[in-house]
Amino acid sequence: MTSLDKPTEDTDQTPPGASGEGDARAVTEAALFEAFGGVRGMVETVVPGLLFVAIFTVDKDLHLSAIAALAVSLVLVVVRLAMKDTVKHAFSGVFGVVFGVVFAMFTGNAKDFYLPGMLYTLGLALAYIVTTLAGVPLIGLILGPVFKENLSWRTRNPGRKKAYAKASWAWGLILLAKCAILFPLYWWSDTTRLGWVLVALKIPPFLLAVWLTWVFLAKAPAPIDVFAEMEAEERAEKEREAALAAEGGDPAPGRHRRQA
Hints:
Number of domains: 1
Mean pLDDT: 81
Number of strands: 0
Distance between the termini: 30 Å
Largest sheet: none
Oligomer: single chain
């Protein structure tokens, strides 16, 4: 098989393995839903932080708030396991809560429960921007395997690479804007105000970034299914060998000469 990054001369034609425009939109929607967890993933992201700030608002008890947030995160993972569903989004939520609990318990400052997540958001924003400037936009690295195109978009599908770059810029700038709101609140506001603002900013920026990603990719060329290409080439090779064998030929020329 050719390399996943091997350039093709005619980029205006529909790439091998690509589907029609309607199918491409459906595939894009399904891929985004899978990659970012859908409605359930968003709920699992919001609930622990919401429970923490709600309890802390009522009784200002850091330990109770932290334990409740961690407990509900673990329950979400257990539910996923019981339903034999993917747990990557629930586990990512647990890790975030665990780091938040450790920070808050270590410093004794309830606001530090939110600090690891805020730093992660800032790092992710920078990653989107830096990788795009480097020519390998992060959103393409995330969604490439989901679309079964791997890295073929880098040189074989320039229109798709451009769409990934736009989407990565959108993610990076939206997350930076979110950080520009949260970090001043972390420094100058109280825990409850920071917590409620953070909960309020969990879903809307995320939905905006996902929607923009869908818009950019829906207008882009369809992905090249490199797995289908490999399977097609393997089938063609087997058919060639079978045809040679049926004709009495040698599917591996030179073999008998080497043995002679």
